[in-house]
Amino acid sequence: MAKYSRLEVANVMAETGMVPLFFHTDVELGKKVIKACYDGGARLMEFTSRGDFAFEVFSVLNKYALAELPGMILGVGSITDAAAASLYMQLGANFIVTPVLREDIALVCNRRKVLWSPGCASLTEIARAEELGCEIVKLFPGDVYGPQFVKGIKGPCPWTSIMPTGGVSTDKDNLKSWFDAGVTCVGIGSQLISNEVLKSEDFDGLEATVRATLATIKEIRS
C-alpha cells in the first residue's frame, strides 16, 4: 500500500517543484540513482515502467527507499491501464502517472486515495481529469505544447495544477519559461538523468545537478 496520501504527494510536488523520471533494469544502479537524487534534495521519483519485469525492479527500489531514504516518495509512470496501476499500488507506489487520460485508472487510484496524474493535451481532457478527482495534470508531450499552452489554460482555469513532462530541461531559461507560465512542478527525465550519467555512474555529478536544479526552481519562484 502507498505510504503517502494523494494530498501529501501533491503537496510535495508543489513544494519541491520537480519530479525526476527514471528507468533502468539494473536494481543496484537504480538504488544509486535514487540515492543521488535524494541527497541532492529531491523527494519524489517517478519510475517509468517501460521494460520487462519492471514491476520487480520497482518493488526492490521502493523497499530500499522506505528503509534507507526517509521521506522519499516513489511513484510509477507510463501506466496505461487499471490492472498495471493496481499491481504497482500493491507494491506500494505512492502515485501513478499515465501518458493518456483513462477513467479506469482514475477509479482504482481514487479508491485507494493514491494520486494519479494523467497525460492530457487539451482543456477538455484537463477538465475531465479534474472532474475525476485529479490533483495535478500531466501536460504531455510538453515540448509539443510549450509554456504558452500552459499560460492559455491558466487564464480561464487558474485552479488547474499542471506538470509538464517532455521539453523540460535543467536550463534556467527553460525552467523559468515553464514556471512563469504557471506550472506547479515539472517532470524531468533524460535531461536530468542522462545516459551519459548512467554509463559513467557519475552519481556525485547527478547529485550536484539535482541540487542546482532545485535551487534554480526556488530562485525562479521567489
UniProtKB/TrEMBL annotation:
Record Pfam families: Aldolase
GO MF annotation list: lyase activity
Pathway: Carbohydrate acid metabolism
Keyword Lyase among UniProt keywords: yes
Superkingdom as given in the UniProt entry: Bacteria
Gene3D superfamilies referenced in this protein's UniProt entry, alphabetically: Aldolase class I (3.20.20.70)
Nucleotide-binding listed as a keyword: no
SUPFAM superfamilies: Aldolase (SSF51569)
Keywords, comma-separated and alphabetical: Carbohydrate metabolism, Lyase
Annotated family: Belongs to the KHG/KDPG aldolase family.
PANTHER family attached to this UniProt entry: 2-DEHYDRO-3-DEOXY-6-PHOSPHOGALACTONATE ALDOLASE-RELATED, 2-KETO-3-DEOXY-6-PHOSPHOGLUCONATE ALDOLASE
NCBIfam families found in the cross-reference section: PRK07114.1
Subunit note: Homotrimer.
Protein name: 2-dehydro-3-deoxyphosphogluconate aldolase / (4S)-4-hydroxy-2-oxoglutarate aldolase
